[in-house]
Amino acid sequence: MADALKLVDYLGVSYLSINCERKPFDDKRIREAIALAYDRETIVGKIMKLGERPAYAFVPPHVANYPGGPHFDFESLSYPERIKKAQALMIAAGYGPSKHLHTTYETTGDPDNKRIAAALQSMLRQVYIDIDIVQVDVQIHYKNMQTHDFALSFAAWIADFDDATNFLDLLRSDSGNNYGQWKNAEFDKLMDQAQQQPDAKIRGDILAKAEQIALDDYALVPTNFRKTRNLVQPYVKGWISNQRDFNRTRWLWIEGKP
Predict the structure, then answer these.
(1) pTM assigned to the model
(2) What angle, 0 to 180 degrees and rounded to 10, lies between the N-to-C axes of helices 28-37 and 79-92?
């Protein structure tokens, strides 16, 4: 029997981090153009090929006590329509066919990340953005993220627990994981309100409003919701694929001859 690759929805999201305090990315139009130009369906369907979902929101599906619903308003547009809108935004921001925005995109040496970076380079060129791909070691990459020493960058977040705040807290103005330094007083206020709200439904609705604020301002660019990637031998028993990707070894056993 062959090994089984266990792919199930995971409490994880990949995204592009944009340094919102570095010009010209303090201009919402440019952040929106980047979000529009990123072809999620091509990345997950033709490059990754792991059955992951394109992400038009930041909080993954099926998070406990979260209603969902927030999304980028361009989700229903075709990709050619998105490119046309992105080009118009870039022209309005002072760029165009004869004046491209030149910047850098930092990523790691992971093979998937390198392939995605090459595809992103082609996608952004359509909207007058030229990126130089900067490949660094993982340790250096996340140090640069923490110190905001980047323009555009690959990022991902895996939740520690099943709650929307484990994602949305990253975007608080004072969060150490707010790599892009996006700040919004109304977002912070809603997050504080949710923290004090004992009713799970009301709390979930407040968090959804906060997420929509972040998406409307293109605080970052969610790209895909992740799936678990566990290669499990057929003789390993007791393994239960789950959203947290957590299996205690005490409940696992070997049955038959490996």
Answers:
(1) 0.86
(2) 160
